[in-house]
Automatic annotation (TrEMBL), chains A, B:
<dbReference type="InterPro" id="IPR001647">
    <property type="entry name" value="HTH_TetR"/>
</dbReference>
<keyword id="KW-0804">Transcription</keyword>
<feature type="region of interest" description="Disordered">
    <location>
        <begin position="1"/>
        <end position="20"/>
    </location>
</feature>
<feature type="DNA-binding region" description="H-T-H motif">
    <location>
        <begin position="42"/>
        <end position="61"/>
    </location>
</feature>
<dbReference type="GO" id="GO:0003700">
    <property type="term" value="F:DNA-binding transcription factor activity"/>
</dbReference>
<keyword id="KW-0805">Transcription regulation</keyword>
<feature type="compositionally biased region" description="Low complexity">
    <location>
        <begin position="1"/>
        <end position="10"/>
    </location>
</feature>
<protein>
    <submittedName>
        <fullName>TetR family transcriptional regulator</fullName>
    </submittedName>
</protein>
<dbReference type="GO" id="GO:0000976">
    <property type="term" value="F:transcription cis-regulatory region binding"/>
</dbReference>
<dbReference type="Pfam" id="PF00440">
    <property type="entry name" value="TetR_N"/>
</dbReference>
<dbReference type="InterPro" id="IPR050109">
    <property type="entry name" value="HTH-type_TetR-like_transc_reg"/>
</dbReference>
<feature type="domain" description="HTH tetR-type">
    <location>
        <begin position="19"/>
        <end position="79"/>
    </location>
</feature>
<keyword id="KW-0238">DNA-binding</keyword>
<dbReference type="InterPro" id="IPR009057">
    <property type="entry name" value="Homeodomain-like_sf"/>
</dbReference>
Amino acid sequence: MTQLGPGRPRLAPRRRQGQTPRAEILDAAAELFTTHGYGSTSTRAIAEAVGIRQASLYHHFGAKDDILDALLGETIAAAAELAERLGRRPEPATVRLYTLARFDIGQLCEARWNIGALYFLPELHGERFTRFRSRRDALRTSYEKLAAQVVAGAGEAIEARTLPFRLVETVINIRSDAGGVPEETRRAIAEAVLRVLGVGDDLAGIREAAEILARELRV
Amino acid sequence: MTQLGPGRPRLAPRRRQGQTPRAEILDAAAELFTTHGYGSTSTRAIAEAVGIRQASLYHHFGAKDDILDALLGETIAAAAELAERLGRRPEPATVRLYTLARFDIGQLCEARWNIGALYFLPELHGERFTRFRSRRDALRTSYEKLAAQVVAGAGEAIEARTLPFRLVETVINIRSDAGGVPEETRRAIAEAVLRVLGVGDDLAGIREAAEILARELRV
């Protein structure tokens, strides 16, 4: 048996993705929640999947909903940070919105497990997830603010400003049905984010400017 | 105690939506599945919510997944039927696609429970739901065929033909977050279905023609 922290024996060698016990627990939980269901997964099953004792799991997470909360937070953290940085940039709103959408689509598609499918759990309406809900609301608001600026430029489709955020999250639906999202579809969704706001001209130019911006921001 | 079918005593008077015991079971199950979770809901809890004995429930449904299958089928049946009728109509593809989207958005929004949120259950990947998955695939294909005709007309955005179906289903995501979908948003989504395909001109004319077609088809 290998050692996991001071005096905590592991029941099996590490076989999970992740550099730390915490990351391994999150990876195992994400797999079980998305393939067996949240309600049907016990902390005991998660500990077993990692190869640690249940008591060791409780050293990292107080309860199953703490694990879910950490996983949900991961689905929005990087996009929220990018949205904040984009708010301070001088590029046109079209370019910034495309950059945000393209990044967010990419990270939702490439995450090892389709954690966004857990947004639909009834548990998320409870008080325990108030903080996650308000963080996700903040990200949605960032999308809507950028979209409103784009619409002001395009002069129509103001009601559609809520749709870019929704379009980006359709990759969760596509992954859930099809397992993966081809590159052409990712690009089509990012372009659709602008099209629903009435932007149809020079999508190639916007895409190019967004690629330059993304490289500069290292995302 | 009132009577439910030949010799089956009810434990409580009917208090569920639905004209028949079967409809009452479906209504109760939809509520429990969407508010407590599918995994956490037993057939016993469903029977109790209806006010019938568990044995009576089994008279209508062999198992919990049969109830889920019936509920899922309800989310696509009417749209699939309309899609078939629209396939035989002479109106332009833009008008037919808008008509389908507007109808489907409406029925997904107005269903008493947001059953589409159950599309994300891991259980749906099992063999039990092969038939439902292929029925939903057929509906998606109907959308894609209409969208491909629209794109052929607009001459661009061919990859986007997968998006109208996905856009319509975002009402499931919006309901899940916000509880309801305002009329302006429903209309914005239906218009976005055309915008993502590169159709930006004369949306008002298409909308009007679609309203006439919907009245003619009585949907």
